[in-house]
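Question: I have long wanted to understand how a fold can be written as tokens. Here is the record:
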Amino acid sequence: MAITVRGADESKDRWTSSLIVKSTADEAGEGELVARGGADALCWSPDGEWLAHLGKEDGEPGTSVLVWSATTRTVRSLVRGLRAASHLMWSPDGGELAFVAAAEDAEAGEAGVDVRAKSRPRVIKDLGYKMDGVGLVPPARRHLHVVKPDTGEVRQLTRGDFDVYAPAWSPDGRTVSLGLSRAAGHVPWPLADVYLLRTADGDIRQVCDWGGTVVWTGWTPDGQVVFAGQRWAGPCRRGSLFHLDGRSKEPVDILAGFDRRLVASARGAAPAAVFLGTGEILFCAREAGCTWAYTVSLAGGPVTPWFTGKSTVIQGLSASAEAASLALVISDAETAGDVYVMKGDTTEFRRITHLNRWADRAAITPAEDIRFSPPGRAELHGYLLRGRAEGTEGPTLFDIHSGPDFAWRPNFSPRYLYQQVLVDRGWNILLLNPRGSDGYGEEFMRSLVGRLGFSEEEDFLFALDSMVRDGLAYEGKVAVMGYSHGGFMTNWLTSRTDRFAAGISVAGVSNWTSLYGTSSLGATTTPALLGGTPRELPERYAASSPLTYASGVEAPTLLMHGESDLMNPIGQSEEWFTALRGADRTVEFVRYPGGRHLFMHNGAISQQEDYGRRIVRWLTEHVEGRSTQARGEAAGTRARGEMAGTQGQGDSL
């Protein structure tokens, strides 16, 4: 079995990954090191001799296609200098490796040898011209290629003004299924159709009238196409599995009636579904904050939970040929993620890695389920990290997740160690999944569309009232924080109510109108969440922007933002800082050079450490020493003149 393990390289102040190989018969151990410095899209040849992967080579630009021999224990390079490479996969006979990569055009090729290339003006004609973590998106399209491992000969199988997504070999190796999108530039939810490509001569034909998204394609054992995607593009939408039986171009939703979002990797790192020996399909989907595995027949019908658990989060799924053995990466309340395997003739999973032994010696506070029942609305669910006994006075933190179509999970994650530090100091931490969160059905996800800010405000303040009543929180000693959408909600709540003693906004949003024009996703995501563009709905954009209510902020506010964030550009925090500082509020603005949107998770290690320490320091300074304020349950919310039309349910897009 091949496994990619991420670890910290403090000497280089960055995360690095190592590729290891270990026998599934071994007990949890280290395994054999194959490569350092990054490995992606791991795949074994059908005979088990060669392990192919995408990786970086010292001194080589771009990404390489590499193969490791299980016999000689050596690595060989097949292709070098690839950009935007993904979806590496062996043909069924092992004679070729297919992959997707940017196809260089004349302009890009000329730029590669021109010393003035970095200074050349870039002409922009379409939206989606930039991407967080990449910068300006290269003009080249991403196409399907194959390479022969024995000779290194490379063939480009697709050409044209389109991008290829999610290819998969047919069982007989003569055909590749793929998603094809003609959308220009970087689009977070590119509209695509399903095509079949004949590898011998490159003949390609459309087989599906779709127009939704395609993030994965695959084949049934008898040669029928299945794929994963969203029928309607955009955030807060349900993803599912679809079947093409060859008789109709209309896809059949295999999971019809299963109101949960399918989990699928858009980079092909793991399959969205596996066909079991029983003929059933195994897949993963969100359930509240968990990720569970389920089975369903190809014909649809009842969906059956297959692998669940109160705190189970499945982070990856893989299978050997004909699903003779299965592997899952599983995290739970006590572990950050390890590999478990199950042979096809057994029903028991066996752990074969033990990657975070330090956690065995740590006192980890598990997440407890917590629920709230607002009248006339859906039940609210989340998790409580309990730092003190009920009825004991102390500080409380509302930590708000990103998204909005994400959800807090009950598993242990080293990304949020500041939470464990605060719990040890006696903090209660609420991890609420308000309206818009994933794992509770599509209606719940979409209920905030057109009411961005207002819906979540109602949910958080109802939860606050309930926690105060139940002795889990005390007025005057409650703080709020979050990143991305959670940063937006921190700005929102601190500007519209005085019930929070401090706020921490990380990579947050303050002005939806300026975000629409400057974010790498602004022209697509923002209209999908607000129901239209700023030109169409200027009052709604103003009504849902914290900047409209900035004069109401009283809470000391810490802002943290990566300077290279293209998803929520740093200008959002600059606008918020200027508004608060101009009003003589207590505010501190921390800028992280080179930091991307998720600098606090995958940026420089020194910045991640600084991020966690600043959170604890700010909350300690501005909340722990405050005295509580006696208030009634209805106290706190200041009406800010909600705009007409924002009180109803979400718009249909």
